[in-house]
Amino acid sequence: MRAVVLNGAREGEGRLDQIADLLRAELEGGGWAADVRTLRAITVAPCAGCFACWVKTPGECVMPDGNRAITAATIASDLTILLTPVVFGGYSSELKKVIDHQIVLISPFFMRIGGEVHHRPRYAHYPSLLAIGVQRVRDETAAQCFARHVACHGRNVHAPRTHSTIWQADTPDTALAEQARQAIRLFEEVPA
Amino acid sequence: MSPITRVLTLVGSPRAGKSTSAALAHLLTAGLAGPGVTIEAVALTTAVRSPLRRAALLAAAAEADLIILAFPIYVDSLPAPVVRALELLAEHWGGHPSLRRPRLVALANCGFPEALHCETALLQCEQFARETGLRWYGGIGVGEGGMLGGLLAAPAPDAPGKPTRGLCLGLHDAATALRADRPIPPEVLAQLARPTLPHGLYTLLASARWHWLAWGNGAWLELRRTPYEA
Question: From CA B70, how far away is CA B157, in angstroms rounded?
Answer without folding.
Answer: 19
